[in-house]
What does this fold into?
Amino acid sequence: MSGIRRGRVAVLVALVAALVGTALISLCVGAVQIPLSDIVAAFFGQAGDARYESVLWNLRIPRMLLGFLVGGALAAAGGLMQGL
It folds into this structure.
């Protein structure tokens, strides 16, 4: 691999890591503080606190996924506008 390509891969890996990190933080922080261990347990289907799971699956995860979709759509629209 050339140096420029390695640099691009490193930037991409860093951005994906930042995205995952901020997503986990957004799932933990809110009016109801959910410990990271309960979030991991909910993703792997282990029994946790029912209140936490309800907040996580009914409020925070759909809002986070919608934010990802809206951000991607805005990025695509911006790329299209610059292309025109």
Q: What stands out?
A: The mean pLDDT is 91. DSSP finds three helices and no strands in the chain. The first helix runs from residue 3 to 28.
